[in-house]
Amino acid sequence: MNFKRPIPRSRGNVPTQFVSSALPGGGVVSRWTSNPSKPVIPSGHPSVVGQIVDKMRQGSCLAGTKPTVWTPPMTHDFVAKYMDNPDAFLKRCEDWYAQHPGAVPRDRVTAPLLNLEPVIAVYKKWARGEGGAKLPPIAEREKAWRLAGYSDAKIHKALAYHKRMEETVDARQEALDLIFAKFPSANKPTPKTKAKKVIKVVKKKMPNSNNE
Fold this sequence. Notes:
two-stranded antiparallel sheet; extended; 212 residues; mainly alpha; 7 helices; 2 strands
């Protein structure tokens, strides 16, 4: 088998430049460094890579830069003082602010002061009835809410929620029954664990022996 000598391929020289830098002590150091400003692939290169590079440099592809949008400086009045003809600049700033109005600040809404004593009294009244604590009727709760100072919107929202719960009580109960039917062990009470008897260790005294 004959030995085939490899043919070296020239990949092009990296562009360099001669740079001199001054040291803190006053000395000057010079060296050759790479120059990234010079393109490695020149324009008009006869290849697919050259065509892509040409398009990127022309800005006619997706990698092109986005156009910048002009916005007036925040201190345009201060900047205009140092201009020879500030009228055009001020007019442009005023037109921009007229087309882009700022956000209108919202009025701070203070929560109304509530007197919760009527509500507490109603719940205490129905907590001491026969058969244990019960939920007060909706009519008494509504009366207590109005005495407490709740707004009409919140009261209407609470009444609508109570009505929706009453209308869907059968459907919700059926859904719960289906869940417990799939898992019958959930209906059974948890078995009580029996306490283990602890055997106490009894220490016996050794009898005194006279064979000493």
